[in-house]
Design a protein that fits this description.
- By secondary structure, this protein is α+β, with helices and mostly antiparallel strands.
- The chain has a single domain, classed as Nucleoside Triphosphate Pyrophosphohydrolase, CATH 3.90.79.10.
- Helix content is 19%, strand content 41%.
- The chain contains three helices and eight strands; from the N terminus they run βββββαβββαα.
- The chain has a four-stranded mixed sheet with strand order 5-1-7-6, with helices on both faces.
- It is globular and about 50 Å long.
């Protein structure tokens, strides 16, 4: 009967996996733990679909338009501090045009393109263990059709 006196719910997030010339699009962001590396990612907003959230978050954090084409995986991660559990939906997709001159979200320092080896080599700077796990699944070719994600509303 854990948590009987409080309402628990996971934080639903989305993450984008986009690749160009063997490099994967990531962001450097300011966090309470210092500067960290993450996929373009963020929280699902009320009223939007997971696909809409992923496209929006990618644009806001990188200035690149992103169109999800496949689900890479669904990840549940309770932070070691015990305060938050994340439920992440990671999508592979296609990049459209870059909106040059667009301001990036607060806390996002810059976009970076890293090879898988560079990503693995910087694991101590990852925002969470989900960063590398999503990249590994993406590189392993995990792709599930978008029809598996249903939005009613």
């Amino acid at each position: 009967m854990r948590g009987m006196n409080r309402i628990w719910k996971p934080n639903v997030t989305v993450a984008a996996l986009a690749e160009r010339d063997g490099r994967i699009l990531l962001v450097e962001e300011e966090t309470s733990d210092g500067i960290r590396i993450n996929q373009p990612a963020g929280h699902l907003d009320e009223g939007e679909s997971l696909l809409e959230a992923c496209a929006r978050e990618t644009l806001e954090e990188t200035a690149w338009r992103f169109r999800p084409t496949a689900l890479v995986g669904i990840y549940q991660w309770p932070r070691p501090q015990g305060d938050v559990t994340y439920l992440r939906f990671a999508f592979a997709g296609a990049l459209g045009d870059e909106q040059t001159g667009r301001s990036l979200d607060t806390g996002i320092l810059r976009t970076i393109w890293l090879t898988p080896e560079e990503i693995e080599g910087s694991r101590e700077r990852h925002r969470s263990p989900l960063v590398w796990q999503c990249v590994q699944d993406y590189l392993a070719g995990r792709r599930y059709p978008l029809e598996i994600v249903r939005h009613h509303g």
